[in-house]
Amino acid sequence: MLILKTLQWGPQHGYGIIQAVRASTHDVLQVETGSLYPALHRLEKQGWLASEWKQTDSNQRARFYRLTAAGKRQLSQEHARWTQLSQAIASIMDRAEGETA
């Protein structure tokens, strides 16, 4: 979900995705390259991402990933599930001791 969300902001290469996640979470979440690239390949295989080779700002060749229409739909579904899950967890965590449902 985080990869899809990051790419909603625009096409990006792998290192850019890593930096975006770190910066957006104030270094709380860090994506390791060993996890990122297999995930990018799986997401592309599922049709949620497309990629192409381009030059980076530092004039290096890198694979840039972008969200497809199917990826946008998937992100919307994942976000809805995340919202439901986080609200359910919050309702448990915010319940006072001894309080019943």
Short description:
Helices cover 55% and strands 16% of the residues.
Features:
single chain, Arc Repressor Mutant, subunit A, 3 strands, 101 residues, alpha+beta, three-stranded antiparallel β-sheet
Write the layout of secondary structure elements.
Elements: H1 2-8, E1 12-13, H2 14-24, H3 33-45, E2 49-55, E3 61-67, H4 69-93
Antiparallel strand pairs: 1-3, 2-3
Could you walk me through the main structural features you see in this protein, from its secondary elements to its overall organization?
The structure is a single chain. The chain has about 100 residues and is of the alpha+beta class. It is about 55% helix and about 15% strand. The two termini are about 30 Å apart. The protein contains 4 helices and 3 strands, in the order αβααββα. The longest helix is centred in the C-terminal third of the chain and has 25 residues, at about 70-95. The radius of gyration is 17 Å and the shape is elongated. Strand 2 and strand 3 (about 60-65) form a beta hairpin. A 3-stranded antiparallel beta sheet has the order 1-3-2. It has one domain (about 1-95): Winged helix-like DNA-binding domain superfamily/Winged helix DNA-binding domain (Arc Repressor Mutant, subunit A).
